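User: My advisor, Dr. K., asked me to get a structural model of this assembly before our group meeting. I'm new to this, so sorry if the format is off. These are the inputs:
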Amino acid sequence: MNHSFQVDERGYYGDFGGAFIPEMLYPNVEELRSRYLDIIADPSFQEEFHALLKDYVGRPTPLFKAERLSAKYNTHIYLKREDLCHTGAHKVNNTIGQILVAKRLGKNKIVAETGAGQHGVATATVCALMGMECIVYMGAIDIERQAPNVARMRMLGATVVAAQSGSKTLKDATNEAMRHWINNPVDTHYIIGSVVGPHPYPDMVARFQSVISEEMRSQLQEKEGRDYPDYVIACVGGGSNAAGAFYHFLDEPRTQLIAAEAAGQGVSTGHSAATTFLGKPGVLHGSKSLLMQTEDGQVIEPYSISAGLDYPGIGPMHAHLFKSGRAKFYDITDEEALEAALECSMLEGIIPALESAHALAVFGKLNAKPNEVVVVNLSGRGDKDLSTYQQRLKLND
Amino acid sequence: MNRITKLFAEATEPILNVYATAGYPNFGDTMTVLNALQAGGVDIIEIGMPYSDPVADGETIQQSNQVSLDQGMTVAHLFEQLKDMRQTVSVPVLLMGYINPVLQYGVEAFCQKCAEVGVDGLILPDLPMAEYESEYQAIFEQYGLYNIFLITPQTTDARIAQIDAISKGFIYMVSSASTTGAKTGISSDQETYFKRIEGMNLKNPRLIGFGISDRASFLKASESAAGAIIGSAFVKLLGQAKDLHNEIVGFVQSIKGKK
Ligand SMILES: Cc1ncc(COP(=O)(O)O)c(C=O)c1O
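Assistant: The format is fine. Below is the predicted structure of the whole assembly, which you can bring to the meeting.
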């Protein structure tokens, strides 16, 4: 095995990845696989992509020195402000990239899955921008739990379809989006929302999100006089914000990569989504990775307070980073995430998304030295989680 | 000789392959369904191994998978139910399912069990050709199992030729770009596609599946292939049947024109 943490020619990261798809999806996935690198490398693509990231998304996002958190944990803490992206999370970096790919593939319809609704909103947004038809599958249970995001998608002109199969949450919405693509193979592109799915999706999504660590490098150079941190911390649902935050440090041995997984009520409670702690190698949604499953190979429905981390797998890149020891994984409970969200709000005046709060909760466990530099990817803002915060943090008293 | 090869070599009329979800409608019904299919005169039986996330399947088969899983079906239970299958079932039997439960059972252990109970082949739609060649083919062949590949209207001629080269038994021709049970009937576009493939002179015979639900669509499909496959329409019957054995026998006979 080579030492690269990048995808190989077969679409694998070490033992993980590949394209385990039915023949019905093969022509679309193969078309994407054979063309994505050329499309992305094309100067006109790069120009359009970066112009939209700048003027539409609002990039570069700031790298903010969190002085009060730094003082509390006696180290240098920076927050990468993905919460300031248009639509409120990093998800839009990927949807901008993919819709530009879809255009160049000659597709005029978009299908997507969503859990919490953040990726659905980011997809509906770019579809409105480009005048493309947009269908978003969302678990029937999530539609009830995330009403504001459903309304946002509808206001943006998207059709939101309830996934009624299986457990009626994110994994089932993903199944339905794939089925939709099977039934509409010619004019539709599937914008997957994380570094999951068959090759080339994990690599393509990681490339679009890699702008996060690209910016971190130049921002750190400016602020700290060196272009790498000692730690990068990110939460992992499917793993797209983490892939973007890690990307340019994968081969930087001086940077420790830290992933925060949702432990839910605790890894051994049966109510958890901490895949590296509870999963085994398996195949779901077109790739081989770590997967929470029964002994019989049936996929287990995970649990987390955060709908964006409530996924039974992780991207194949992260399975490889875990197995090779390149990244260290922490299990963060609902309670720890809630405390960290409150702490960040009170000390820095920034209300984080519940997903991002899992990354913030790592500070207390890290034991970073006073002279070290810690960057946390603040993947999204907390507006969508206010009702949970209200309830769980008793903000009404 | 593998039962599938023998069947295609000797068949004098269109071949009927029927799909049934294991452990459905009730956990203990698997062998009842198999025996009734054989009694009705089916030519091939495809047993669906239920999976929590069957992406290539439409609503009817998804639901039957979920019901079966909720009733406790597993790969291990299925092999237990099929233990004495060959005492009563003589037609070729295929197992259809998704790759993950097979991986968890262990590929080699799975193939060994298949051979032991008398399974002739496998249909694993999310096992792609390249993976099959590099990781699975040798093991499947060691246990005499045919791996059945799918082609669709979007599959290129070059890829069909590759699939034909690696296939044994037959090629599963998906009738339209769809999940199972999504459409019924056969359109003129589909007939054009059937004829195009017929004209390729492949070395393997073909069975047409997806959207075949009655004698008319069975015969229509069989004009351009060795026969056809019925899935969702049969699973629907299983879900509603009051007299499982007789209704299955009647269904098969009506498709085969023996009633
Ligand atoms: C703000 C935010 N962070 C993180 C995630 C998790 O996704 P990923 O692991 O792909 O970054 C989500 C998903 O909805 C999200 O909305």
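One thing worth pointing out at the meeting: Residues A 89, 91, 115-116, 118-119, 194, 235-242, 308-309, 353, 355-356, 379-380 surround pyridoxal-5'-phosphate (CB under 6 Å).

User: Perfect, thanks a lot.
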